[in-house]
Structure formats: structure tokens, C-alpha cells
């Protein structure tokens, strides 16, 4: 009843106090792993084992272990790369763009979403690096002196732009995430009882004390990093789309790609955040912090970006016809009605039709429905990349070289393996790091919690009779 | 040399803000205030100046832009010119993505490294926290005691009358 606007729902329910937030978030970090976590971790480790085996096969026997052929030289590897990078985008969107827009609902989900970004980019990076065939020479993509043995790198190539975009994106996201973690590590450090935990969190917290000047600088740094990360996240998927758009392959050579890819990235990323958060809030009992209001807000973003993606698919078709280029027209007819029709229609169903169900409020606020639809979106967005990449390549200008692509068990293994890698990292994060940003949730507690938290008698006497006088006074400064 | 501090413990940020104003108005110098989260309005009542870190970010970004442009123009335009896709040697539009990325990279890292240095944040096992509850749910106002000058009792009363739930003394060994 004490939140800012009467039409907004509270963001923290259950009448929490500052101390409750600390307790609720630290409980997971301090307690012994629970059974559900351990079971999930065991499954993830199996996935990780599959990853290592598939990588071993790929490196030992070479890229021939994958199903690529002369016509389809890019398939699952780039599909998975774009899929993972896209998933990562939601984390930055939540932590940076929503910070600039002063959306308070970001505070309880930004930590986990940013962690997702970092782990997703790690998974994404595996694919181009493995596709090099000799990953130990991966540093050749950096601009090294040509006396080193080759010419300078080609700065006209979008593949090189990718190197700079992905590595910048990864390192800036990591720093942004870590800066946010420092005060929370300090909280855990000051509560820690075990000698290892005490030392580990002391090192991680960098000697943070929470002094006034430190917070002032911290807020400045967060704001500027958000301002930098916002164009950065848009640039990353733009550059990823340039990998295709700057080529002369029908179906790839289109100017719509950058905005279409960015919307798709946010779309798939929010779906993944929902998949993860619905499980996390349940397993770690964080229902008071990640509420239905949060789920609904994210579902609204899914309707918006899902619709943009739908319009992009339609526009592509229209432009193919309108361009009068027969190769372009054939590429699109072939996508929808050629041998890969099933992939195209899976994409259309999962990405364009299912998210429209969120127009119905009941579905938007149903956890089960949201979870199922978020899985559909994840699948649909994988098919989108598969459709763009494989259907455009498999029938090129020369019918004698037309071919089909079928993945090998190793292709599948690397992909499933990165999912294992992702969940291994995410579960470790969820166990040892605070999954909810405590400092930021405490910061919004007074303005956005359900029940006004307890005030000491001193506080009451200070402010006289009305308890409302305390509410929102500092927020008027914002 | 050991330093002595009087710590006023608060449990509400609005009470704290008012207390800071009153304590400063009474002519007492506040050493520092420790809070579990950023309290808006704190900078004004404590008289903390706006951070100049954005300026650092700007100049680091500017360095990134110039470095990236110089690097690409020199490498492909002068050191080893090649014709790629019929483009001129110095194809500025092609150089923009890398220039943008390096601008962001330098601005972000330059600012964050500066932040770590000026705030003296570094991995260390020794942490000097006045009151451990200040990273949980309490707000701590620390006032330095000058031996023989500061009236600790008066200070105690001043803090309590301004809403402190506890007043403690703490000695810090330097």
C-alpha cells in the first residue's frame, strides 16, 4: 500500500524489511546445497561431459566431424553462435536500458540476467573458436604485426568486426556485473562465519565499506556503464547480422537485418530470462522478489519484440517479391515451401503465433503458460537462425552444387554440450553468488514494497504522527 | 596511531538524512557515513561533490576512438596497403564498427580502473568496517574523536536526539 503509484503493483511483496532481504538472498549462499540444486547440477555436469567429448572429437579429428559440406559451409555452429549471443542480450537490456529508463522492476532480476549474458556469450564464443579448427591459433584474429607471419587482419570484414564486438561486449558486461556484485559480496563477507567463505568474499568484495563517497561514485559508474552498454548491445547484434547482410547470398543481403536481429535477440533473451527466473524463484524461494508483476512486464516485452520479429519476416517476403530479383524470390519461396519448410513453419509458429497469446492477461500472468511459451520462443529463435543460415546456403546460384545439410552426432553434442556448460555456470553462480541484487532491492524497498516496513520508535518520534511522512521523501530527489 | 570514532547507528535512511543535516548544522564534522545501499540525497546533505568519473570516461573514450582510427588507417592504408573488395585502402565506413567498439571498451575500462584506484578498491583480506551491520540493514554515521577536544557525551546526546538507535565508540588501529 505504500508504493509510488496506486496503479502500479508492488515489486516486493510479503512486507519485507532490509534485514529480510539480506536473509532471503544470503540463505542460498550460506546454506548447504539443497537436493534440487544438486540434482540440477548433476544433470548439467552430464551436459558438460558431452561438451568436452564433442570438443575433443572436433579438435582431434577436425571439422569433418561436423555435418558441413561444400555448399552448406555454415550450419549449426553459426546458428548456435547467433542463438547464444541473442540470448545474452536480454541481460544487458535489463541492466542497462531499463536503468536508463528508471524501470524499478529491473532491480530483482538484473543480477541473474547479467549472469545469463556472460555465460551465454561464453557459450557463443565456443562456436567460432571451434570452427577455426585450430583454436590454439585463435589469437591470429587480433591485429598482430605482419612480421609475425601474415598480413594485417582485414578491417573490412564483418567477421573481424565480430571479434571486436563480442570481446568488448563480454568484457564490458563482465565489469558491469562485477561492479554491481561488490556491495553484495561485502554483505556476505560481513555475515560469513566459515574461514574460507570469509576470505573468499573478502577478496571478492575488494574492501568495500559502503561509504557515502563510494556509493556516490558507484552510482555514477553504473549510470555511465549503462549509457555505454546500451549502444554496445545494439551494436553487437547489428554486427552479428552484418556477417550475413554484407554478403551477396540471396536471403542474407538485406538492409532489414540489423534491427530485425536486435529485436530477435531481445525476444529470445527475455524468453531465456523467464525460463531461468521461473525456476530460480521457485527453487530459492524468491517469490516475494520476483513477482507476477515482473513476469508480466517481461511478457509485455516478449509481445512487442515477437511482433517486431513477425513484421520482419513478412517484410522480407514482401521485399523479395517487390525487388523483382528472381534469386531473392526463389530463396524465400524455398524457405517456406522447399525441403526445409518444417524449419520455417516451426519458426513461424513459435515466434509469431505463440507470443501473441500474451495479449490475454490471464496467460500473461500464468507461470505455467509463461514457462511453456518461453520454451517455445527459445526453440523458435533457434529455428530462425537455422532457417536464415541453412536455407539460404543450401541452394545457391548453381543448381549442380545444391545440397542438404544433416547434423552429425557431434554437431548435436557440441550444441547440447554448450547448454550443459551454460547451466553448470549458472548453477554455480546461483549457489555462490547473490542471485538478487540486495543493495538495489533495498534501495527501492520503501517506494515499491507491499507493506511498509517496520520503523523504530525513534523514527516514529522523529517524524511525528503520520507514518506516511517517511515514505518516498528521498525519492522526490530522483 | 590509533583513531577513535563515535558511531551513530540508524535504521532508517530518512531519519539518517535529517540527522546528518542537524549534526552538521551543530558544527560537528562527520568523518563518513556507511549505508547498505545508495541513499539518494546523501550527496547534498554531506556536501559531496559530483564525481568527475564521467570526464575520465569521456577522455578514455576519445583515446579509444583516435587509437582505433589511427590503427586501422596506418595498418591498411600505410603499413601494408591491400585492395580488398575494390574498396579504397582507407575505407572509413568499414572502420567504424571497430572504432565504435574500441571507444566503448576504452571508456568503460578507463573509468572503472580509475574508480578502483580513487576508491582504493583492491582484493584484500583486511577490511576495516566500522560496524558490520552497515552492509545489512543499518546506517552508520562515523564522527572522529579528537582527544581532549571532542565532548563525547555531548556527541552521544546529539546523535541520540537525532534518531540514532545506538551510539558506540570504536577505536581503529592504523
From TrEMBL, chain A:
Keywords: Cell membrane, Membrane, Transmembrane, Transmembrane helix. It is found in: Cell membrane. It comes from the Bacteria. Signal peptide: none annotated. One of its GO terms (cellular component) is plasma membrane. Pfam families: NrfD. It is a multi-pass membrane protein. InterPro entries: NrfD-like. Residues 456-478 are annotated as: Disordered. Its main location: membrane. Residues 462-478 have a biased composition (Low complexity). The chain crosses the membrane at residues 37-56, 81-101, 113-139, 159-181, 221-240, 260-280, 301-322, 342-360, 367-392, 412-433. Belongs to the NrfD family. This is Polysulfide reductase NrfD. It comes from Pontibacter burrus. The lineage of its organism: Bacteria, Pseudomonadati, Bacteroidota, Cytophagia, Cytophagales. The gene is nrfD.
UniProtKB/TrEMBL annotation, chain B:
It holds the Pfam family ActD. Keywords: Membrane, Transmembrane, Transmembrane helix. The lineage of its organism: Bacteria, Pseudomonadati, Bacteroidota, Cytophagia, Cytophagales. The keyword Membrane applies. This is DUF3341 domain-containing protein. It comes from Pontibacter burrus. InterPro entries: ActD (IPR021776). Coiled coil: none annotated. It comes from the Bacteria. The chain crosses the membrane at residues 55-75, 95-118. The keyword Transcription does not apply.
Amino acid at each position: 500500500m505504500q508504493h509510488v503509484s496506486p496503479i502500479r503493483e508492488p515489486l516486493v511483496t510479503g512486507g519485507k524489511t532490509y534485514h529480510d532481504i539480506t536473509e532471503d538472498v544470503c540463505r542460498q549462499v550460506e546454506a548447504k546445497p539443497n537436493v534440487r540444486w544438486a540434482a540440477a547440477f548433476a544433470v548439467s555436469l552430464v551436459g558438460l561431459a558431452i561438451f568436452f567429448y564433442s570438443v575433443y572429437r572436433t579438435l582431434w579429428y577436425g571439422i569433418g566431424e561436423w555435418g558441413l559440406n561444400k555448399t552448406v559451409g555454415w550450419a549449426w555452429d553459426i546458428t548456435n553462435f547467433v542463438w547464444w549471443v541473442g540470448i545474452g542480450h536480454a541481460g544487458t537490456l535489463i541492466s542497462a536500458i531499463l536503468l536508463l529508463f528508471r524501470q524499478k522492476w529491473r532491480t530483482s532480476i538484473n543480477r541473474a540476467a547479467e549472469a545469463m549474458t556472460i555465460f551465454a556469450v561464453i557459450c557463443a564464443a565456443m562456436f567460432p573458436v571451434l570452427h577455426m579448427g585450430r583454436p590454439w591459433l585463435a589469437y591470429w584474429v587480433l591485429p598482430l604485426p605482419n612480421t609475425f607471419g601474415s598480413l594485417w587482419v582485414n578491417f573490412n570484414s564483418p567477421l573481424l568486426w565480430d571479434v571486436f564486438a563480442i570481446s568488448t561486449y563480454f568484457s564490458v558486461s563482465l565489469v558491469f556485473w562485477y561492479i554491481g556484485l561488490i556491495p553484495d559480496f561485502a554483505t556476505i563477507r560481513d555475515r560469513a562465519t566459515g574461514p574460507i567463505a570469509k576470505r573468499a568474499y573478502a577478496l571478492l568484495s575488494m574492501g568495500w565499506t559502503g561509504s557515502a563517497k563510494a556509493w556516490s561514485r558507484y552510482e555514477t559508474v553504473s549510470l555511465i556503464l549503462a549509457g555505454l552498454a546500451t549502444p554496445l548491445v545494439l551494436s553487437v547484434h547489428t554486427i552479428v547480422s552484418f556477417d550475413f547482410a554484407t554478403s551477396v547470398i540471396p536471403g542474407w543481403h538485406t538492409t532489414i537485418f540489423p534491427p530485425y536481429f536486435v529485436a530477435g535477440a531481445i525476444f529470445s533473451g527475455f524468453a531465456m530470462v523467464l525460463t531461468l527466473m521461473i525456476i530460480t524463484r521457485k527453487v530459492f524461494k524468491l517469490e516475494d522478489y520476483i513477482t507476477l508483476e515482473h513476469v508480466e512486464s517481461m511478457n509485455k516485452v516478449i509481445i512487442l519484440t515477437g511482433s517486431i520479429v513477425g513484421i520482419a519476416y513478412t517484410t522480407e517476403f514482401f521485399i523479395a517479391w517487390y525487388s523483382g530479383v528472381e534469386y531473392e524470390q526463389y530463396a524465400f519461396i524455398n524457405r517456406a515451401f522447399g525441403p526445409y519448410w518444417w524449419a520455417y513453419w516451426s519458426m513461424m509458429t513459435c515466434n509469431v503465433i505463440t507470443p501473441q497469446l500474451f495479449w490475454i492477461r490471464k496467460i500473461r500472468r500464468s507461470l505455467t503458460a509463461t514457462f511453456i511459451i518461453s520454451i517455445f520462443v527459445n526453440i523458435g529463435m533457434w529455428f530462425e537462425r537455422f532457417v536464415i543460415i541453412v536455407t539460404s546456403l543450401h541452394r545457391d546460384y548453381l543448381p549442380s552444387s545444391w545440397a542438404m545439410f544433416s547434423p552429425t552426432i557431434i554437431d548435436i553434442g557440441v550444441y547440447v554440450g554448450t547448454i550443459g556448460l551454460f547451466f553448470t555456470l549458472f548453477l554455480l553462480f546461483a549457489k555462490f553468488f547473490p542471485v538478487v541484487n540486495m543493495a538495489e532491492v533495498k534501495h527501492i524497498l520503501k517506494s515499491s514494497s507491499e507493506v511498509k516496513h517496520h520503523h523504530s520508535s525513534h523514527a516514529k518520534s522523529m517524524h511525528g504522527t503520520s507514518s506516511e511522512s517517511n515514505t518516498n521523501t528521498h525519492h522526490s530527489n530522483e | 596511531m590509533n583513531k577513535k570514532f563515535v558511531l551513530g547507528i540508524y535504521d532508517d535512511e530518512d531519519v539518517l538524512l535529517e540527522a546528518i543535516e542537524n549534526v552538521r548544522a551543530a558544527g560537528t564534522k562527520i568523518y563518513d557515513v556507511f549505508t547498505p545501499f545508495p541513499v539518494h540525497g546523501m550527496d547534498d546533505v554531506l556536501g559531496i561533490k559530483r564525481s568527475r568519473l564521467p570526464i575520465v570516461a569521456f577522455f578514455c573514450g576519445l583515446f579509444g576512438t583516435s587509437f582505433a582510427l589511427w590503427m586501422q588507417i596506418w595498418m591498411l592504408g600505410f603499413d601494408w596497403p591491400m585492395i580488398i573488395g575494390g574498396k579504397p585502402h582507407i575505407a572509413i565506413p568499414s572502420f567504424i564498427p571497430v572504432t565504435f567498439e574500441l571507444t566503448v571498451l576504452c571508456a568503460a575500462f578507463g573509468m572503472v580502473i580509475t574508480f578502483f584506484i580513487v576508491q582504493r578498491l583492491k582484493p584484500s583480506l583486511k577490511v576495516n568496517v566500522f560496524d558490520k551491520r552497515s552492509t545489512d540493514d543499518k546506517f552508520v554515521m562515523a564522527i572522529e574523536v579528537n582527544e581532549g577536544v571532542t565532548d563525547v557525551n555531548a556527541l552521544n546526546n546529539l546523535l541520540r536526539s537525532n534518531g540514532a538507535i545506538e551510539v558506540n565508540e570504536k577505536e581503529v588501529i592504523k
